[in-house]
Automatic annotation (TrEMBL), chain A:
Domain ABC transporter: 4-238
Species of provenance: Fervidicella metallireducens AeB
Record InterPro entries: AAA+_ATPase (IPR003593), ABC_transporter-like_ATP-bd (IPR003439), ABC_transporter-like_CS (IPR017871), ABC_transporter_ATP-bind (IPR050166), P-loop_NTPase (IPR027417)
Source organism, top-level taxon: Bacteria
UniProt keyword annotation of Iron present: no
Protein name: Spermidine/putrescine ABC transporter ATP-binding protein
Keywords, in A-Z order: ATP-binding, Nucleotide-binding, Transport
TrEMBL record, chain B:
Biological source species: Fervidicella metallireducens AeB
Main location class: membrane
GO cellular component, one term: plasma membrane
Family annotation (Pfam families): BPD_transp_1
Similarity-based family: Belongs to the binding-protein-dependent transport system permease family.
Transmembrane segments: 21-39, 76-102, 114-134, 140-161, 207-228, 235-253
Domain ABC transmembrane type-1: 72-253
Record-level GO BP terms: transmembrane transport
Membrane topology: Multi-pass membrane protein
Listed InterPro entries: MetI-like, MetI-like_sf
Gene3D superfamilies according to UniProt: MetI-like (1.10.3720.10)
Name of the protein described by the UniProt record: ABC transmembrane type-1 domain-containing protein
Length: 258, 268
């Protein structure tokens, strides 16, 4: 079943310097429980697409439907959408625990039921001992995990991830993407992740949407089928089909160095 | 790290750091002592004119006399009171106005040129008008201190507000936060360091405002003693007042620094 539907979506930015078309007539669906990644050349409009889905900005044309309900700006469905930014943006003046419960506090949902759920996640994902630490006492990978739990604390139906690992060094990045993938699958969430790392997109996703240069249009959508059991992003990289997908996407992205 | 099993090398290092620190304090004290002793001696042996530069022993006598009259602490209290009130008002009102300007970009853009002009204007020039408008009493002095610190506070706090990372604001928006929550959860807490440095500048500026105010209108306070001492050619009075003023200003600055340290400690 389609959880998220994007219909004829176009976006243009207006500034004094002129008009910038960012997205041009996008159509796609994301099914419940799916992990979709979106790749595209830098500056093509990937972050714009996520901001639109999150209801942070208003589209020039087209509609976004979540459970068949149109998303508006300012966002009406905020609590159903979790947005994870490139950097963790943990607030250094709040403890880890207070950072995690930020969303619940803002949405006025600090009920004992929600707090119990958060406490359970904190224990389950190994943050119990760090609850009262401040963010600057944690490593980059750990901070990203906290950011994910903060996003999950409000119990969203769909997660939007905007290059969530790009601030991490390569090794941490591999480990953290494995970890975050597991958490998202454990919690049974649907996810849309933007990246410009082709391997990362294939390793983590059920489907990869490839965008053209700005203004972004959909160039192709690839279903990723890997002959591997108990799939994780790290194991996926060893699948025999991996290279094949990599080459396909590489060709579609049509990368030149100018 | 445990403190009880330090290596020999590290102990020597710590000792050296400590010795250096002590040496610095010692030198500072020696400079102060030498300064006052040479002042006393050169004045006593008439190498300099004690009428023009006063003399530590005469200053001390004056201090005792002032204390005997029960006026010493009265003058100190009056001036400190005016400074603290002026400085707190400047900080609070300045922050409130900054919040309004942050909230409404329209108001901010409209008021921008006026702020620039007011900032450039030497506020002391408004002294005579102040006296006409609110009388020549303590309120005029506090007003003077307030005026001097207000515009600077607004400008520095507002620029602190505007420097807050846009992505942090975006984060609050993705969690469904409104403008008030953006202010409460991000903008204000993220600007605390800026506000503390505004506080530090304000302490200094409020002293300037209060002393200028007292020069113009006061009947008591350290600024009054300085002006009055000058008028009756009592340099002892002037020098003592300046000395007390320096100590009081220093202490107040240290108080704000202590506040800053406490804040930094809580942050790390
Ligand atoms: N608020 C804005 N006003 C005007 N133009 C904008 C705005 N935000 C983005 N743009 C422009 O829209 C285009 C798409 O931006 P966007 O950030 O969505 O791209 P992106 O694919 O996420 O890029 P990157 O790979 O660098 O993350 C860019 O050319 C950018 O300059
Ligand atoms: Mg982007």
């Amino acid at each position: 079943m389609a959880l998220l539907k994007i219909e004829n979506l176009s976006m243009r930015y207006h500034t004094l310097e002129g008009e910038t078309p960012a997205l041009n007539n996008l159509n796609f669906e994301v099914n419940s429980g799916e992990f979709v990644s979106i790749v595209g050349p830098s500056g093509c409009g990937k972050s714009t697409l996520l901001s639109l889905i999150a209801g942070l900005i208003h589209p020039s044309e087209g509609k976004i439907l979540l459970n068949n309900k149109e998303i508006q700006n300012p966002c009406n469905e905020c609590s159903k959408i979790g947005y994870m930014l490139q950097k963790d943006h943990l607030f250094e003046w709040r403890t880890i625990y207070k950072n995690i419960t930020l969303g619940l506090e803002i949405q006025g949902k600090l009920s004992s039921e929600n707090i119990q759920r958060v406490d359970y996640m904190i224990k389950k994902y190994g943050l119990e001992n760090f609850k009262n630490y401040y963010p600057q006492q944690l490593s980059g990978g750990m901070r990203q995990r906290v950011a994910l739990i903060r996003t999950l604390a409000v119990n969203p139906e769909i997660l939007l991830l905007d290059e969530p690992f790009s601030a991490l060094d390569y090794q941490t990045r591999l480990a953290v993407s494995d970890e975050i993938y597991k958490i998202i699958k454990d919690e049974g969430k649907t996810a849309v992740m933007v990246t410009h790392d082709i391997s990362e997109a294939i390793a983590i996703a059920d489907r990869v949407i490839i965008l053209t240069k700005r203004p972004a249009e959909i160039k192709d959508i690839l279903n990723i089928n890997l002959s591997i059991e108990n799939r994780t992003p790290l194991k996926s990289r060893e699948a025999p089909e991996f290279r094949h997908y990599f080459n396909a996407i590489w060709k579609e992205l049509d990368v030149h160095v100018e | 790290m445990l403190n009880n099993n330090l290596s020999k090398e590290h102990q020597i290092f710590l000792k050296r750091v400590k010795r250096r620190k002590n040496l610095i304090v010692l030198t500072q004290i020696i400079i102060l002592l030498v300064f006052f002793i040479q002042w006393e001696l050169t004045a006593r042996y008439k190498l300099v004119d004690p009428f023009l530069v006063s003399q530590p022993s005469r200053m001390f006598k004056f201090l005792v006399k002032l204390y005997g009259e029960g006026m010493l602490f009265r003058h100190i209290f009056v001036t400190c009171y005016e400074t603290i009130v002026g400085f707190l008002l400047g900080t609070v009102i300045g922050t409130l106005i900054s919040i309004i300007l942050w909230w409404s970009d329209f108001i901010c853009k409209v008021l921008d040129p006026y702020l620039v002009v007011l900032n450039a204007l030497p506020k002391i020039a408004l002294g005579p008008i102040l006296i006409f408008w609110i009388g020549n009493g303590q309120p005029a002095i506090i007003m003077m201190a307030l005026m001097i610190s207000l515009i600077v506070t607004i400008i520095s706090v507002l620029s602190g507000f505007k420097e807050v990372d846009d992505d942090k604001i975006k984060l609050i928006k993705t969690l469904g936060g409104n403008k008030f929550q953006i202010l409460k959860y991000v903008v204000l807490p993220a600007s605390i360091p800026t506000m503390i440095s505004a506080l530090k500048i304000n302490v200094g500026l409020s002293w300037v405002g209060v002393i200028v105010g007292e020069f113009l209108v006061a009947k008591e306070g350290l600024g009054f003693l300085i002006v009055f001492g000058g008028q009756v050619a009592q340099l002892d009075m002037v020098m003592v007042s300046i000395l007390i003023l320096s100590i009081a200003a220093y202490l107040m600055y240290e108080a704000v620094t202590a506040l800053e340290r406490r804040y930094i400690k809580y942050r790390s």
